[in-house]
Amino acid sequence: MIRVLVCDDQALIRAGFVTVFGLQPDIEVVGEASDGEAAVRQASRLRPDVVVMDIRMPVLDGIEATRRLAGPGVEQPVRVLVVTTFNLDGYVYEALRAGASGFLLKDAQPAELIEGIRTVARGDSLLAPAVTKGLVGRFGDRLRPTKSGNDQKLAALTAREAEVFRLIAEGLSNAEIAASLVISHETVKTYVSRILTKLDLRDRVQAVILAYQTGLVA
């Protein structure tokens, strides 16, 4: 069972999520929260596998709540799936930097939300290629290259790993990378795992951010 905590300040949306998720045989909603502070408190007590997190909330917003649950230095991070109104919300990029494993739009179909939870619970990030490119285009001014020790980490990648890393940053899925480089899907998975390990990254979300920050892609 995937244990889920739902955090949204709108009671109607929370109720809808709880109903949809609760109908799934492999998902159990273990708690609800109406603000980020309550989510952090409940996550500490309930230890859910995934927190479905809104961004704009009173008391403590979803970005800071995500940072406390999944950000750098958190000893026992919880996976966070941000569900937000993208066209109105200017904080998606900050949420990903804070540690979110992915995001969906609030107008997503129920099946997409359910699969999003399963994807994040498996340890994968939720970045569809088209959405990745849209995110980068919308927040490109915040992804300017910065000098850091990450440059040395990038130097540790082999030529092929660097090529795969660039394709990840461009939003390609494993299947698309395999087709582009004419290698097997399993080989791509191996490369991705090595890249994340070498660069000390949690998932593909962080890989995309790092690639833009280091200037590997622009």
From TrEMBL:
GO terms for molecular function: DNA binding. PROSITE patterns: HTH_LUXR_1, HTH_LUXR_2, RESPONSE_REGULATORY. Residues 3-121 form the Response regulatory domain. PANTHER family: TRANSCRIPTIONAL REGULATORY PROTEIN NARL-RELATED, TWO-COMPONENT RESPONSE REGULATOR. Keywords: DNA-binding, Phosphoprotein, Transcription, Transcription regulation. It holds the Pfam family Response_reg. SMART domains: HTH_LUXR, REC. The keyword ATP-binding does not apply. It comes from the Bacteria. The modification 4-aspartylphosphate is found at D54. It comes from Actinoplanes couchii. Transmembrane segments: none annotated. This is DNA-binding response regulator. Residues 150-215 form the HTH luxR-type domain. CDD domains: LuxR_C_like (cd06170), REC_NarL-like (cd17535).
